[in-house]
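Q: Got a minute? One more chain.
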Amino acid sequence: MSPEEKLVALGFELPPALPPRFSYIPYRQAGDLLFLAGHGPRLPDDTYRTGKISSDDQIPGAYADAQLTALNILATLKSAVGELSRIKAFIKVFGMVNAAPDFTAHPKVINGCSDLLVNVFDEVGRHARSAVGMASLPSNMTVEIEAIVQIAS
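A: Always. Here it is, folded:
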């Protein structure tokens, strides 16, 4: 089953790859590596899911925001390489959570991204990862995630 088929089987739909809002590019290729810019829980209407995560009862919603961010990353990857089956490995994921100073469950939030990648890509989706809290994020988005991905030529 292709990654695109697996997404559908898991009940997900790949969103459109929206262009960046500011003066940067969504990815840069260096050899067989793609370095993805930070992505957020951007909705098709070009708005973001927003807010500061301050308590454990917000984790399920923030986890879903990290899943949406992973889908946005996959949309950018598909636009960059054509077929998601060209991905050989997710090397590194860096997840940032818009968090209150006393919130410490950042990994539980960013698991929304990591779990989706592993569920869609199996071992190819396993990656090294950082999950950290930030005092603020652009557009007040709940999470921002960047990735480094190895692709087949």
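A: The mean pLDDT is 96.
Q: Perfect, thanks.
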